Amino acid sequence: MTTTPKTAAAAARATVYGYPRQGPERELKKAVEGYWKGHVTADALETVAAGLRRTTWQELAAAGIHEVPTGDFSYYDHVLDTTVMVGAVPGRHRAAVEADALDGYFAMARGTQDAAPLEMTKWFNTNYHYLVPELGPDTVFTANSAKPVTELKEALTLGLTARPVLVGPVTYLLLAKPAPGVPADFEPLTLLDRLLPVYAEVLADLRAAGAAWVQLDEPALVQDRTPAELNGAARAYRDLGALIDRPRLLVASYFDRLGDALPMLAKAPVDGLALDFTESAAANLDALAAVGGLPGKRLIAGVVNGRNIWVDNLEKSLSTLGTLLGLADRVDVAASCSLLHVPLDSARERDIDPQILRWLSFAQQKTSEIVTLARGLAQGTDTISGQLAANRADLASRASSPITHDPEVRTRAAAVTGADARRSQSYAERAAAQRAHLRLPLLPTTTIGSFPQTGELRTARADLRAGRIDAAGYEERIKAEIGEVISFQETAGLDVLVHGEAERNDMVQYFAEQLTGYLATRHGWVQSYGTRYVRPPILAGDISRPRPMTVRWTSYAQSLTEKPVKGMLTGPVTMLAWSFVRDDQPLGDTARQVALALRDEVGDLEAAGTSVIQVDEPALRETLPLRATDHPAYLAWATEAFRLTTGGVRPDTQIHTHMCYAEFGDIVQAIDDLDADVISLEAARSHMQVARELAAHGYPREAGPGVYDIHSPRVPSPEEAADLLRTGLKAIPAERLWVNPDCGLKTRGWPETRSSLESLVHAARTVREELSPS
Description:
774 residues; 7-stranded parallel beta sheet; 5-stranded parallel beta sheet; 20 strands
């Protein structure tokens, strides 16, 4: 394309669906946490938030984005914002919200001592967590347009073209669950006719405030949907499209192919669609052509990957965009989804080799790629010839780098056989050997791994980096912390101990920094939930383990106690899922490399005398493809990678795994296929739902559904923990039931940790006595 087209391309514009919220120095995190602690006023918090929004919009506009998004900013979670917008506040939080909207908002997110928070789970197959709406037959929706209207007006006041972004009504209902006390078979989608008038009111308010377009995000439609669900979506957009008092409507989908929903949306009386042309690009392209395109409508083409950090192949994206010309009245250019899922700016990474830095594209760089593509589409490729040449050089540099190919690693991975990924004994044989070796009581108690990361620990790491202490001084601090953690667990009465992970900055980054093929960032923060931000490492090349990573600290902890201390590792699927993974080879190949590196670590832990080894896989469900037809291939390599990691141990070595904050019912067979001896899972917020799912499947091994919700500052009473434990016993026999928190304790403070674990141990003892009265 070397000429300027006169059709859809001539009108091409650049836009994005959303942007990182935190600010370059995580200003939002600091302000929100300061507010929780009483150090920051509500007005000061809003001043910080408004400043971040303003700076983001102005930077996007200066970069060449023609239409900035509004409404994507959030203090905690955009689905929770939608719950507020439609008035679906749970009854237990209504008084708090009415008394103080901001405090009530945070109470829904974090809970209070008297009211549990909303359940939290993963946003589709990402590592972002959303707060699950709770709905029932008696739910009454009421419109509250204050947030989307206010933020739109802020952008318009700056002289910008702005497009409010809202979670669409169908996705909102499909993400919801029955409220506590509501029958489990209640379907929130039955509330659609009740919800649509509220959306109509919000749309009218946005139009009155100056919105020309409003984006309604419907990513749930890229999943497999029943005819009833598709009919509901058709009805929703028939009714919203028929409104007179509304802006133009753009329905956005992302993360996969739209499938059967595409013909329905193409015919709906809406004004445009936004589609993902990175995930299953060919399927969306073929489906769009099959329905005759979108005549008279706007198409936003998500051709730049919004979920990974590699530079875009600009020529490939231009080819896709060129194919789309003629299929819509206007073709605009965007990332495949919100840029919320990538860090802010790769230019801030001073420690990465400049040659490698050329391969990376964070939110600011992706914005530039989008603008370049829009200009090339509208004005012809001659206008971006310099950018195209630089892009070709960057792609060639990565493809030819020795970092990406290690012959030794590849030879070892190719030699793996099925026997390598199997334990040599049946579970029954292993369980008997482990009982004899470990001598644990009924309902054994443990934790998931991490203990609070105190200010002193963070200071120690900062002091080491700054040279204020040497390695020996740092290690003494770590030893002291491990000693305190072991001492507390023994005093509290826990049965299987952990060393607390004092030396670890993050459960993925810690290992990535010790494996070849990984890159770590200093500023690559990405929101996981609320004020929890992580720095996903970058999986750039072939993976190997030069030396042991955890043996020293685990062995030191074991030297302090007669009780078993678990070795703690992050599993291969989670190492991929919580990294920015390479896109130049199949994920299964990368997983096998990581599994072999971890297998070496498992062997060294066992040789050092570690009898219990936990290999965490919280991302197993998260990484599950959104379409059922894609599940078998993924689960085959994912479960093989776990078994390859753990398959070489003796029968009396007990293998644990852990999963949290996901819908486990979809993968119970895969959980079984892992062949772990014990699995611990999040269950407190979902009231032991996973225990019932395991029982329905006939899961034959040991399990620890959590009785303590660690993502809330609430301290459970011994009675509350015991009640959850009794609920678990209805599904899992006592001889196979463990007692543990939902997840690691890294983000909690010591006072609440002590009290909560004491409640947990007390609950276990109470229920043991009920089961075996003396």
